C-alpha cells in the first residue's frame, strides 16, 4: 500500500508542478501518464550499475538497503487496524528509529569517498540534529498530556476535540520541523546544486538511487500520517483520514 502510494505521490507532484508552470505535465505513458512512475522505476532498475574506483563497497551497498528497511519498520509504530494493539512504547520506538537516519546519511556519503557528498552530509546532519532536539521536546508535551508512550492513545484523547484546535501553534512548529527533517523546500540545503551537485547521494545511480528515493518518500508518507495522528484524530478506516494525509504530503 505504501509503495504504491509513493509512485502516485510523485506523479501528483509532477502534475501539480506542470499546472503551476502552465505546461503539459506527464501524459505519454498510458492514460494521462498514470503508469509513468512504474516506467521510471523500471528504467532506473535496468540501468547499468557503475562501480567507483575508491569506495567502501560493503557499506556503500548495504546502508541504503538498511535505511529502506528501517523506514518500512517505522510503520510498525502506527496503529493500522489495531494490529499493534499491545505495542505500548510506539512513540519511544519511533524516536529511536528517527535518530538512526543521521547515521545513514553520514555512512552513505563517507562510503562513496566523494568530497561533494561528504560536505553535503555534514550540512544535512547539522540541520537534522538541531531540529531533532526541538522535535523531541515538543513530542514530550504529548507524552505528558497522554501519560502514555503509545500512539494509539492519541486517537483516544481526541475523541471529542481535535488537538489542532488546542495546539495550533504547536502544529505549525512541528510541521516546520518535519520539513527540515525531510529536507523539503525551503530546507533542502543538502541539494545545493551550485556547489554540491546533487547532495549526499551524488555517487549513487541505477537501482541504488531508486532505493534512496523510495527511502525518502517513505519518510514523507510516514511523517504525514504521524501529524494526522497527533493533531487530526487519525482513524485508518475513514476515507477522510487519507485526504488529511494527502494535504500534509503536498504541502
Describe the secondary-structure layout.
Layout (H helix, E strand, L loop, with lengths): L1 H19 L15 H10 L11 H17 L16 H23 L2 H32 L5 H6 L5 H4 L1 H14 L11 H4 L9 H26 L7 H12 L1
Helix pairs in contact: 1-10, 2-10, 3-4, 3-10, 4-5, 5-8, 10-11
Please provide a written account of the structure.
- Helix 2 (36-45) packs across helix 10 and helix 3 packs antiparallel against helix 4.
- This protein is 67% helix and 0% strand.
- The two termini are 21 Å apart.
- The mean pLDDT is 78.
- The chain has eleven helices and no strands.
- It has helices spanning 2-20, 36-45, 57-73, 90-112, 115-146, 152-157, 163-166, 168-181, 193-196, 206-231, 239-250.
- It is an all-alpha fold and 251 residues long.
- It has two domains: 1-46, no CATH class; 58-250, no CATH class.
Q: Please state the structural category.
A: mainly alpha
Low-confidence stretches: none
Please, how many helices? 11
Number of domains: 2
Overall morphology:
globular
Rg over C-alpha atoms, rounded to the nearest angstrom: 19 Å
Main beta sheet strand tally, sense and closure: none
Family: Belongs to the complex I subunit 1 family.
InterPro entries: NADH_UbQ_OxRdtase_su1/FPO (IPR001694), NADH_UbQ_OxRdtase_su1_CS (IPR018086)
Membrane topology: Multi-pass membrane protein
Organism: Callipharixenos sp. DPM-2011
Amino acid at each position: 500500500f505504501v509503495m504504491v502510494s509513493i509512485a502516485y505521490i510523485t506523479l501528483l507532484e509532477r502534475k501539480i508542478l506542470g499546472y503551476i508552470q502552465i505546461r503539459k505535465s506527464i501524459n505519454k505513458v498510458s492514460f494521462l501518464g498514470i503508469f509513468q512512475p512504474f516506467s521510471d522505476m523500471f528504467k532506473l532498475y535496468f540501468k547499468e550499475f557503475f562501480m567507483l574506483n575508491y569506495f567502501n563497497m560493503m557499506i556503500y551497498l548495504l546502508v541504503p538497503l538498511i535505511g529502506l528497511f528501517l523506514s518500512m519498520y517505522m510503520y510498525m509504530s502506527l496503529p493500522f487496524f489495531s494490529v499493534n494493539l499491545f505495542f505500548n512504547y510506539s512513540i519511544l520506538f519511533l524516536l529511536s528509529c528517527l535518530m538512526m537516519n543521521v547515521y545513514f546519511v553520514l555512512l552513505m556519503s563517507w562510503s562513496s569517498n566523494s568530497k561533494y557528498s561528504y560536505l553535503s552530509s555534514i550540512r544535512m546532519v547539522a540541520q537534522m540534529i538541531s531540529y531533532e532536539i526541538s522535535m523531541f521536546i515538543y513530542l514530550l508535551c504529548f507524552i505528558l498530556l497522554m501519560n502514555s508512550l503509545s500512539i494509539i492513545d492519541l486517537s483516544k484523547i481526541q475523541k471529542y476535540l481535535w488537538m489542532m484546535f488546542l495546539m495550533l501553534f504547536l502544529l505549525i512548529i512541528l510541521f516546520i520541523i518535519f520539513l527540515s527533517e525531510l529536507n523539503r523546500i525551503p530546507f533542502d540545503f543538502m541539494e545545493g546544486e551550485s556547489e554540491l551537485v546533487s547532495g549526499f547521494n551524488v555517487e549513487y545511480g541505477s537501482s541504488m538511487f531508486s532505493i534512496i528515493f523510495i527511502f525518502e518518500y517513505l519518510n514523507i508518507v510516514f511523517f504525514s500520517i504521524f501529524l494526522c495522528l497527533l493533531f487530526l484524530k487519525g482513524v485508518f478506516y475513514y476515507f477522510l483520514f487519507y485526504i488529511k494525509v494527502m494535504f500534509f504530503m503536498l504541502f
